[in-house]
Amino acid sequence: MALIQSGGGSQGGVVLSAAQTGNGDSTNTVQRSPGGAGAVVITSAVGATPTVTVNIQGSVDGTNFFNIPYALVATPETLSVAAITITTAVTTTYLLRPNSPWQFLKLAYSANTNVTLTATAFV
Questions:
Q1: DSSP 8-state secondary structure symbol assigned to residue 32
Q2: CA 38/CA 102 separation, integer angstroms
Q3: What pTM does this model have?
């Protein structure tokens, strides 16, 4: 896992996963600018009987991670920390809250069957 520092509003985003398969953490972890809002865009490519569980996780120290609040674009004030289950080929943007107590961001993948994930963080 590589730690990548955000450019503080970098327009290109930071790649967390590039065509990643299997279970475990995203290839990269990003460090954000303090207090900033952001988003994670997750794109899935699928094979037969696809499913994967994704947790959006943050940390204050880069070691101890926990699920952080996110919202969907269609319902930006409805927060969740629940695991995300993906079963189709889709691209979804998850909004991250400003001033939420995390400095480091990664994704945790589990129960992955035939799903390839690409994820970019904009923090």
A1: P
A2: 12
A3: 0.91
DSSP annotation of 34 reads: T
Q: How confident is the model at residue 4 (pLDDT cuts 50, 70, 90)?
A: low
Residues 6+ apart with CB under 8 A from 59: 65, 66, 102, 103, 104, 105, 106
Integer Cα distance of 84 and 11 in angstroms: 25
Q: How confident is the model at residue 33 (pLDDT cuts 50, 70, 90)?
A: confident
Per-residue CA distances from 106 to 11, 16, 48, 49, 69 (Å):
19, 7, 27, 26, 13
Max CA pair span of the chain: 41
Under CATH, which number does the domain 2-122 receive? Answer: 2.60.120
Does residue 106 contact residue 114 with C-beta atoms inside 8 Å? no
| pLDDT tens-place string over residues 54-65 | 999 999 999 999
Whole-number CA gyration radius for the chain: 13
- pLDDT, tens only, 95-121: 999 888 899 999 999 999 999 999 999
